[in-house]
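Hi all, long-time lurker, first post. I run a small reading group and we've been trying to get comfortable going from sequence to structure in the token notation. Rather than ask abstract questions, I figured I'd post a concrete chain and ask someone more experienced to write out its structure so we can walk through it together at our next meeting. Sequence below, copied exactly:
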Amino acid sequence: MKKGELTLNFVFKFWFPIALTWLMMAFEGPYTTAVIARLPEAKYNLAAYGIAFSFALIVEAPIIMLMTASTALVKNSRSYKKLRNFTFSLNILITLIMVVFLIPRIFNFIVLTVMGLNGELAKLVYKATCFLIPWPAAIGFRRFYQGILIAYKKTKLIAYGTVIRITTVIFSTLCLAVFTNLKGVYVGAISLSTAVVFEAFVIYAMTYGTVKNRVLKSDTNFDLGFPYLIKFYLPLALTSFISLGVQPIVTFFVARSNLALDSLAVLPVVTSFIFIFRSMGLSFQEVGIALMKYDNENFTVLKTFVFMLAVTVSFVLAGIMLTPARYFWFINIAGLSGDLVPLAVQTSSILILLPALSILISWQRSVLVNADMTKNITYGTAIEFSFIVVLMIVFLKMNLIGAHAAALSFILGRAAANIYLHSVYKKGIRNLVLLKD
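-- Answer (accepted) --
Happy to help. Here is the structure in token form:
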């Protein structure tokens, strides 16, 4: 890409299929929880779904940045094969971790002794987590190949794959809900695993031609050594591990909070709703990595796009939360019972600025990845994690409602990470200039 070639229109066309992919995935959560909310024993099943999903997320953490890695590092046959083998090894490892976690003695110690869940809720969580065993590895496999599609500017194919995934979720969820007597949490877990595994193979098939005709035939002079791969990827893996590890930690605190069951039931509904808007920021990180060329004109175009995106997302979310549309969402779409709606509205209102902060952090991270400063991304995430844990302890000692404490901790923790990354942002730009030169 030559100097001055980048335009807002080009950035939008490149970003939109990825954003659409994230947006479709974001609607997956509200749809699944809406189905669970309409099945028997909704409060218990929503709580169990949120807990099981948080466990699967932390196991998934080591492979979540494979999309970023493959976008940045897959440049020829050698780098493709090394990162592919690395991906397979990580997938085997996280699957084994998932299985070990489900050994009854280990599981019972964590959920009964440490988290303090009651026996009925723990049984629901255990079986749902069993159904989610294939989920993390399928995510890792899929994200590796999605990164290649982004690197070779085939982002539309990613959106097509996600359409297939969402269709599978909708079809399997409805079939299980209508034609079986499975509990709601099991319906959600089985549907998620089935859809992600199917999507992973579809993405692989879509990437096959690009890998065969472009990646394997590339004459780019780039040798991805294992020491460099570890140096590059370890900070990113730690970042996602710390970031996703927040969810089960917060769940642990909420389980011991004021209005614990109501808060556990509401949080997966609220976080899946807010994730719809956060997905706009999450979708930008790989875009920034792929398109960033540091000269004044191109760099300014990307910054302008980020600003416009943050303002638009914040405006839309605020418009929902400050009007009767919020009740329409949580009652008619999410299907929450009347006693849970006020808590859901209050919790979501606290999180209005979280999507804008997520867009900002994606921009900051994309600069630092391209500047080869991935350690600073890890430091920022560690700061966010630390703030969240400390704030949860403080808020629960103040006897705040669990869902309120979680929301306040999330927003203040993310703000702390943004502030830290801003402090190293200019150094990242200077490094970026040197690397481009």
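A couple of things your group might point at:
The radius of gyration is 21 Å.
The first helix runs from residue 8 to 37.
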